[in-house]
Amino acid sequence: MSIINKIASVPEWISQFRTHRLEQQYLDKLGIPSWGHLSEDKFLDFMSVMPKMDSKVLLGIIEQIPDFTQLCTEGLSTLKQAFSQTTESNENLSLAIIRAIDSVRESISQELNKENLSKEERKDIRDQLMDLARMYERLDAKNKKFLDTIFGKLVAGVGIAVIAGVFVKNLVSPSYDDSEDDTDEDLS
C-alpha angle 119/123/124, rounded to 5°? Predict the structure, then answer.
């Protein structure tokens, strides 16, 4: 190999070294010795860092993961179950808070029915009711933000897994284009 060819291969070698180093960092972060040891629970952690990965590194990693499509399917099933449980739990908690606020609101509202209240006392009671209304509003805003965040993570995970799964499927079994077939079936 000539010196010019050796010099020309340096950028490729640097790129390969960088890719290998990044892959090793991800392996270390996941606590596994190789991509063949990527379990379902570690795969969910892997999915969370996939959007931050360099595409070349990600594709190189995906090629090394045995049963990538199965891991995607299992991971997405786990994500779906966790999403359902989390949203149900969040809904139950929100309903409990709303019931508690409603109870306080009811008690405060009954105070307004008293005949011997001064204008100042009535104003204080109305202010308390307005504070409760603001509590409802804050709870609603926090709940929507929470659901947007968790839904966004689920959608990102699904999107990445689907794209990666399609890539791997095409890598493993590329479609056959019979239009390029040179055989002549009509021999007459």
Answer: 120
Contact assessment for residue 151 and residue 90, using Cβ atoms and an 8 Å cutoff: no
Q: Are 113 and 50 in contact (CB under 8 A)?
A: no
pLDDT higher than threshold 50 for residue 183: no
Identify whether the C-beta of residue 44 lies closer than 8 Å to the C-beta of residue 75.
yes
Q: With 60 as the cut, is the pLDDT of residue 2 above it?
A: yes
- Given a contact cutoff of 8 angstroms between Cβ atoms, the answer to whether 129 and 109 are in contact is yes
- Residue 120 confidence class, pLDDT cut points 50, 70, 90: very high
Full-model pTM: 0.49
Position of tokens 């010196």? Answer: 3
- What percent of the chain has a predicted confidence (pLDDT) above 70? 71
Between residues 119 and 157, the one the model is more confident about: 119
**What distance separates the 2 farthest-apart alpha carbons in the chain?**
112
| DSSP label of 100 | H
Whether the CA torsion 71, 73, 74, 79 is positive or negative: it is: positive
Q: Which of 127, 46, 54, 117 is nearest to 79 (CA)?
A: 46
Domain spans, the chain:
3-171
Q: Which amino acid would we find at residue 133?
A: A
